[in-house]
Each structure stands twice: as structure tokens, then as C-alpha cells.
Amino acid sequence: MNVRDLRKRVPYQIQRDVLDELSVDQVAEKSDFKISTKEKLRDAVRCTGPRFKSCFLSFVPLLTWLPRYPFRDNAIGDLISGISVGIMHLPQGMAYALLAAVPPVFGLYSSFYPILIYFIFGTSKHISVGTYAVMSVMIGSVTERLAPDSDFMIPGNDTNSTTLDIIGRDAERVKIAATVTFLSGIFQLLLGLVRFGFVVTYLSEPLVRAYTTAAAIHVIVSQLKYSFGISPQRYSGPLSLIYTVIEICALLGKTNIGTLVVSIVTILGLVAAKELSALAARKIPVPIPVELITIIVATVVSWQMDLKTEYGVEVVGQIPSGLQAPVAPAVSLLGSMVGDAFALAVVGYGIAISLGRIFALKYAYKVDSNQELIALGLSNAIGGLFNCFAISCSMSRSMVQVSTGGKSQVAGAISAVVILVILLKIGELFEELPKAVLAAIIYVNLHGMMKQFGDICSLWRTNKVDMVVWVMTMILTVLLNPDLGLAASIAFSILTVVFRTQLPKYSILGQVPGTDIYRPVEDYHQVKEIPGIMIFRSSATLYFANAEMYIDALYEKTGVDVAKLLSHKKKLEAKRLRKEKKAAKKANKEAKKRAIEAADKAVGPDPDSTLPQAIILDLSPVNFLDTVGVKTLRNIYKDYGEAGVQVYLCGCQRGVVESMEKGDFFNEKVTKSILFSSVHDAVLYSQQGNSKEESYFKM
């Protein structure tokens, strides 16, 4: 006999007085002690030596874990992992810079400065921060909107000809990208300092996955011009993606064949190489740097065949060596990018903390959500001063960091050193790299996001509301662009929560025979209603948005429409009064009595005889009450009371009771004696004719 069967056969018996809320408060000796707001504020700002030390160490986690770093156990793994991830940063940084509409070298800057800042302030040991496709395309939408090509056309030698000032345009776009990155970092930093890390809870997993999928579509469309060698017009605002696709289709006749061939060959080569790398991963502990090999081969081929001159293939161009001095953000531009910066702050943090929590759960350590906001905020704010664009974490790089033995933030610091070497010595070697190759690298890296379309089928089977959130997020982000799409998606997701509270399940509860357990009668065959007692429960909380529906459902489920009943009683009472007055005029007292009795018979039987003895409202699902909810309960108690039906409330949480107290629900006539901790207490109390002295909870 197993434990479960044994537990099923173990009987138990409880005998106690039926307890209402007042009795429970007395027996349990309810505490009225509350900390005042003044005391809470004083405690929050109190600064002691140990508290200051704890706050400082939590603000700079490096000082906590680095002195205890297990060099012998972790050093080799972090070294190999850091070099592997650093190699990945090179092609991804350059490729994602194209998404941000800035020169490729700034993708390398974004893979260096922010990583060092996160190394000092971050709490996740395994995520790889740096350039990320979704963040880059959001930056690109800002830079191309505020610095379109049309603003940098200069007259040519001919009367009707113009040429594009690429140097001036790129300089302006770098300034815009750095400024919006700086502002997004400030937002993240402020949110972290006020302990606002819970903001990520509004980004549900279906919303995040759908948003990144839609952003991937924006990424793909934005890179088509590099794959076909065309120059479509830049569109901004809602439906810009649709207009861009139409424009690209119209320009397909002007495709540069050399560029298209480079794109196709690179994509096919990358896909084949990645498949072979996946097969070899079981035998080789370190992943093959497929992307690095690709850009090296492509650069050599482009240089040898002179693809830029002979075939008109667009290449990366000048990559300056060394690092740049910090530059102050363009304050004049801040007002035009507040919404974009906030969207970048929320999306970047949401992606980073989601992935960080996954690794923290897997490897049994804690990630501080507020400190992560501060770390990312400092990474972006300081990075913005060095002309970096907004960063987050990459799933592909993080997986490589973990699979190659990375066990701490040291791996990230080593990857930054790799990028530093590239910036100082090697970067200029990639000036002949075709941009079509970088676009191909982006396409292949996005195949994981495209697989997220499979979420629709799985969500259809598990939760259709989440599926609707996924589909609507996808549609809104595609049509409205990533910035407006995110805001609209969050609003829609919150509306689904409100919608679900407006359409809860209303049930009449019955008793499971021989137990104190109550379940909806429509869901169980053996559950029976208690004669003369109606037990009503809603699956959602009670507040202004569903208060009227709560009353309607109560009338429908109990079969008692109090409004009609009271109206009928008033009519009967008026008729009875008329009969009495008539009888009083015609007879004396005794004759009057007989006339009244005759009038009662003429009026007919009292309709109250068919009413339930009591109605019990199970409020256990209710976690808060607003003023409308309190008023609704007060009206239900009053109206049913006038109809001769006693109303009891059970399962009230402490916050609900406090709301009722503040809302003047209780008075001299209505006390806490109508409140019970459980349904069974309320049932026994109502069955015993409101006599608690003789009522017992017995099983």
C-alpha cells in the first residue's frame, strides 16, 4: 500500500464551536499593532555602518564575489569561454551596427565598454551582454527617423544631380544612437534606484516572445537592401514596414547581381557550416567560430576579386583603429526620443532579466532584479558617452558562454579584452568585408526567433488568451513599429487581465457528502446543495468593473430577483392597506380582524415561502474591495434582508475586511458576526437558526 492510498484512508474528526469573525479574533488574539508610515520612512532612511556596507556591496557586486573567486576551479573555463564569446562579438557587433544604421566599428565599441561596466555591477554569472538584434533595430528606427538620407543630399556637379553626404549622415546617426542609448540608460538607472524592477512583470513570456519575433521581421526587412544592393526610400511611423516591403518589391529590377550572389552563397555556406558545427559539437569541446571564419573568408575573397570596384558590391569601408574619447550627449535631441528611450530601457531589461533568471534557477544562485536594472543602466549611460548603442543580452552568445565552461562574469571581461585587441590592431583588416555578408549573418542568427511561430500552436492547446496576446503583439509590433508596438502590446495584455475579471465563472456550491468540502454543483455528480441555503461564489475579485455583473449573476444563480420581489411585496402591501381601510369603514374591531384575514386570503400566499433561508457569499477569491465593491455587498445584504433572506459572508481576507470597515459596511445592526472563516461554519450557523451556542463544527 503506497502513502497516497494510506492517506486516503486515514479518518479525522474535529469538534469545535462555530466561529464567526469576531470569535476568531478573540480566540486567536488578533493584533492591532501597525507600523506607521512615519516609522517606515524613518527606518528606510536610517543609515548605520553595517547597513551602509551592505548597500555599497550590493551596489558593486564585484567587491563581493571577486575576492572569493575560485581561481583554480573557474579560471580555465572562464578563459576559454571568454575567448569564444569575444570571437562571436566581432561579426555580431559589426552586423548589428548595420541594424542600428551606424558604421560597423560602433558595434565593436558597443561590445567593449558596456561589457566592462556590467562586469563590475551585474549579478548574473552566465548571460552575455552586448549587441542584440532587437535592440539594434529599435535604435535603427530612431536614427533613420531623425536623420533620414534626404537631409544629407548635396547638389552635384550637374544641375539636377545630388549626392549623399555619407560621412555627415553617419556622424549624425552615431550622435543620435549614442544619445538615445544614454537616455535609456538613465531611465534604467532611475528605475533601479527606486526599486522598480517588478516592471518586467508586465512583460509576459508570450508577449516577449511575440515581440522579439515581430522585431526579427523588422530586422529581416531592414537588411534586404544590403542583400539586393538597392536603396529603398526610408519610411517611418505606423505601417512603415508594409511601405518598405512594397518599395523593395518595386526596386527588385535594379538588384545588384554581384551583391545578391554574395548574399546567397554566404547564407548557404553559413547554414551548412552551422549544421556541421552542431554535429561536431559532441566531439569538440569548443564551438567552431563559423561566423568569424565566414567574415575572414569573405574579406579575403572581396579583397582578391575587388568586388567593390568590379561588381559594385557595397563594403564596410574605413574602420578606425583605437578607442574614442567620451562625448557629451546631444541634449537638444532628448525631447524627441523619450518614448523610444523608455521602450529601449524596458525591452532591454526584460530580455536580460528573463534570461538571467533562467540561468540563475538552473545553477542555483540569485539574480537581483533591481541591481540588474542599475547594471544595464550604467552600461548604457556610460556606453552612450563613448558612442555605443543600446545593449541587452544575447541568447546565442550566452549559450556559448555556458557550454564552453563559463562560470562567472570573468568570462565577459575576457571577451571584452578580445574586442579591445581587435579594435586596436585587427579591425582595419575587415574594411573590404561586404555588407551583404553581415546581412546574411543576421538572417541565419534569426532562425531561432522565427521558430517561435510554433508558440501559436502550443498556446492554442494550453491557453487561448495567451495565444491571442501572442498574435496581437505580433500584429501590433509589425504594423506600428517596435516602439509603439510595445506600448500597444502591453496595453492589450493588461486589457486581457481586466477582461478576464469581467467574465469570471459564477457558481452555486454544494457539499461533498460527509465532508466540510464545497464544490460547484455543476462540476460534480455527487455534490448536493444544502436545503434552504444558497452558496454563491465568483472566481474573480469584486470591483467597479464587474460589480453589476456580480449582482446579476447572483440573482440568476439563486433564482431570486430581489428588485422584482421587493416591488411585488410593495404592491401586495399597498393592496393589503387598501383592503384594511375599506374594512375599517364598514365594521368594528372584530369585524375588522375578519376583514383583514379575508383580505390576506384574497391577496394570496406569501411569495417569501419559496425563498431560501440564507445566502452565503464565498469571498475567498476576492483579494481586494474598492468602494463600489463594498457598496455592492452592502446593497446585497440590505435588499435580501428586506426580502427576509439572511446573508452571510465567508472566506474574507484581512484586506477585504479592512476595506469593509473603512467603507462603513458595519454598523450597530450589521456586525462582524455575519463573517465566517469557512463556508462550513456559515452553513452550520445558518442551519442552527443563528444560535452559535448550540452549533458545532463536527466531522
Question: Which descriptors would you attach to this protein?
Answer:
disordered C terminus, alpha/beta, 6-stranded mixed beta sheet, 699 residues, two-stranded antiparallel sheet, 29 helices
Task: Write a concise synopsis of the structure shown.
The chain is an alpha/beta fold and 699 residues long. Helices cover 60% and strands 6% of the residues.
Summarize the structure in words.
There is one protein chain. The protein is of the alpha/beta class. Helix content is about 60%, strand content about 5%. Strand 6 and strand 7 form a beta hairpin. Helix 9 crosses helix 10 and helix 16 packs across helix 17. It is elongated. The chain starts with a helix and ends with a strand. The C terminus is likely disordered.
Q: Say how many strands there are.
A: 12
Q: What percent of residues adopt helix (DSSP H or I)?
A: 55-70%
**How is the main sheet built?**
6 strands, mixed
Number of helices: 29
Proportion of residues in β-strands: 5-15%
Major sheet strand order: 7-6-8-9-10-11
Q: How large is the radius of gyration?
A: 35 Å
Protein topology:
Layout: H1 3-9, E1 15-17, H2 21-27, H3 37-45, H4 49-59, H5 62-65, H6 71-99, H7 105-109, H8 113-121, E2 129-130, H9 133-146, E3 153-155, E4 162-164, H10 166-193, H11 205-228, H12 240-251, H13 257-280, H14 290-305, H15 307-311, H16 338-362, H17 369-385, E5 392-393, H18 395-403, H19 410-426, H20 435-445, H21 447-450, H22 455-462, H23 464-502, E6 506-511, E7 518-520, E8 533-538, H24 547-558, H25 562-586, H26 589-603, E9 614-618, H27 627-642, E10 646-650, H28 654-662, E11 675-676, H29 679-687, E12 696-698
Parallel strand pairs: 8-9, 9-10, 10-11
Antiparallel strand pairs: 1-12, 2-5, 3-4, 6-7, 6-8
